[in-house]
Amino acid sequence: MAEISWPWQYNFPPFFTIQPHSETRAKQLEAWQQLIAEYMKASKKSTIDIRESQNSPLFHNASINRKLSSEALLTILEDMAKTGRAAPIDKSKNIWEVYWHSLDEWGNMIYSWASNNGLNNSVCTLFELQEGDNTVGEEFHGLDMNILVKALKTLEVKGKCELMEFDDSQGVKFF
Amino acid sequence: MRRRAGVGAIQKHRLEQEKYREKGSEIQENQFQQMSKQLEVFRENLEEFATKHKNEIKKNAQFRRQFQEMCAAIGVDPLASGKGFWSVLGIGDFYYELGVQIVEVCLATNYKNGGLITLDELRTRLIAARGKAKKHQDITNEDLLAAVKKLRIFGNGFTVVPIGKGKWLVQSVPGELNLDQTLVLQKASALGTAWVSTSILIDDLSWNETRAQNALDHMVKEGLAWIDTQDTKETLYWFPSMFAECVSAS
């Protein structure tokens, strides 16, 4: 279980009920988004399955007996999607990817790591990026492979790298 | 047979009346002059006193309160005007400075409490934000109340809501709380739970359901209360401004 310092809202019972007043709701959604992002980051997870959400302490505070309902979680995730901080990966919107950094930010982070390590014009495998010894200590070390690929694709669009397929793995060439 | 009054008598009477009136206004004039003189002397003394103890007033909360009380008792408000001899003393400045700091604290915490803050939390935060010197730390609730009252000149944006037992809330959003809403806050404060419900208002304040619901709905609409539908019995209305963990959160 990820250890994070829970914000005060986590122990505030109405935090688990979507608020009807728009200004209050905006504050509530913002607090949830920060909490979700922080929790996912601490537990090194990138996906949320709404159907299983209530098994996670993140959405179920047993000490005050409050749960975040599936509908409420969907509201929060859809709001995160508006600012590019989450995206559904199945059609029924049950499984969501959460980006505690936007894909753009991830892309830039990887690119500056590559530049700093003189990897321009050379090729490395995605496995090296994700699990390699050179990236230990980088924030993207251990990042979900799907997100890694999406982040690199944002770089590819900018012409900063090119994704390539090998026989059984993927690689990337930085420019 | 009764004789009617002659012209002479009437004139004599009128003359007398006039003389009385003259004498009367003369005495009044005299008294007025004397009073003005006394007041002048008093003002001078008070001014001298205040000048002499200026630093004491600024530094010492106890002294400041007594000075305020004295001024209030004789109907003088040293904060009423920046002009005149009080401005020399800088007593007003002390409260204006406090006022600005109060506004800062209220704005900084608005995101979590919706513009309602207990005087105690306000004081704790304000003292933390001020310097570490003793004179910066020595701020009483009376000082804060005096300063908030001065903020009224900005309209009804800053008001003090008494919630009983020597406790106050400072409201920093426009819009006045009506009596019912104040009673709701008092109830929540008295219970110490940070929440109330319609049934509590109905039972404890003998309100009917519509009245209770209206008051609570209005507070939700103002962003002062959060609703919680997960209680087993009924909907609860929570006030973050009174929720201990919210109060102590940075």
From TrEMBL, chain A:
<keyword id="KW-0653">Protein transport</keyword>
<dbReference type="InterPro" id="IPR036388">
    <property type="entry name" value="WH-like_DNA-bd_sf"/>
</dbReference>
<keyword id="KW-0963">Cytoplasm</keyword>
<keyword id="KW-0813">Transport</keyword>
<dbReference type="GO" id="GO:0043328">
    <property type="term" value="P:protein transport to vacuole involved in ubiquitin-dependent protein catabolic process via the multivesicular body sorting pathway"/>
</dbReference>
<protein>
    <recommendedName>
        <fullName>Vacuolar protein-sorting-associated protein 25</fullName>
    </recommendedName>
</protein>
<dbReference type="GO" id="GO:0016236">
    <property type="term" value="P:macroautophagy"/>
</dbReference>
<dbReference type="InterPro" id="IPR008570">
    <property type="entry name" value="ESCRT-II_cplx_Vps25-sub"/>
</dbReference>
<comment type="similarity">
    <text>Belongs to the VPS25 family.</text>
</comment>
<dbReference type="GO" id="GO:0005198">
    <property type="term" value="F:structural molecule activity"/>
</dbReference>
<dbReference type="GO" id="GO:0000814">
    <property type="term" value="C:ESCRT II complex"/>
</dbReference>
<dbReference type="InterPro" id="IPR014041">
    <property type="entry name" value="ESCRT-II_cplx_Vps25-sub_N"/>
</dbReference>
<dbReference type="GO" id="GO:0042803">
    <property type="term" value="F:protein homodimerization activity"/>
</dbReference>
<dbReference type="InterPro" id="IPR036390">
    <property type="entry name" value="WH_DNA-bd_sf"/>
</dbReference>
<dbReference type="Pfam" id="PF05871">
    <property type="entry name" value="ESCRT-II"/>
</dbReference>
Automatic annotation (TrEMBL), chain B:
<protein>
    <recommendedName>
        <fullName>Vacuolar-sorting protein SNF8</fullName>
    </recommendedName>
</protein>
<keyword id="KW-0813">Transport</keyword>
<keyword id="KW-0963">Cytoplasm</keyword>
<dbReference type="InterPro" id="IPR040608">
    <property type="entry name" value="Snf8/Vps36"/>
</dbReference>
<keyword id="KW-0472">Membrane</keyword>
<comment type="subunit">
    <text>Component of the endosomal sorting complex required for transport II (ESCRT-II).</text>
</comment>
<comment type="similarity">
    <text>Belongs to the SNF8 family.</text>
</comment>
<dbReference type="InterPro" id="IPR036390">
    <property type="entry name" value="WH_DNA-bd_sf"/>
</dbReference>
<dbReference type="InterPro" id="IPR036388">
    <property type="entry name" value="WH-like_DNA-bd_sf"/>
</dbReference>
<dbReference type="InterPro" id="IPR016689">
    <property type="entry name" value="ESCRT-2_cplx_Snf8"/>
</dbReference>
<comment type="function">
    <text>Component of the endosomal sorting complex required for transport II (ESCRT-II), which is required for multivesicular body (MVB) formation and sorting of endosomal cargo proteins into MVBs.</text>
</comment>
<dbReference type="GO" id="GO:0043328">
    <property type="term" value="P:protein transport to vacuole involved in ubiquitin-dependent protein catabolic process via the multivesicular body sorting pathway"/>
</dbReference>
<keyword id="KW-0653">Protein transport</keyword>
<keyword id="KW-0967">Endosome</keyword>
<dbReference type="GO" id="GO:0000814">
    <property type="term" value="C:ESCRT II complex"/>
</dbReference>
<dbReference type="Pfam" id="PF04157">
    <property type="entry name" value="EAP30"/>
</dbReference>
